[in-house]
Amino acid sequence: ELRLLDKLSHPNIAKIIGFVEDVEKSIAWLVFPWEDNGNLREYLRSGTWEIPERVSLIRDVASGLDYLHCRRPPVCHGDLKSVSITMSTIQRFCHFS
User: Hey, where are the domains in the chain?
Assistant: First the structure.
């Protein structure tokens, strides 16, 4: 999974920056950039967005998913939800796994 994520390059897919592994417990955590503007759930609950932002949101998420699904072989996230979609500081939506 780490190798696959490292190869992804799209403006709406968060770039992995590293991982942490607990060898004794055989557990690993993926590390992604922190986004100060929070996740999609928080953004939608704020109520501070208008129609242009809604359209941008839909386009950004769809663009990221299209990129994943059109790869060979296709990449299926399998657990996409509002808390795993973050809003970057330039107000673009980025998905992270």
Answer: 2-95
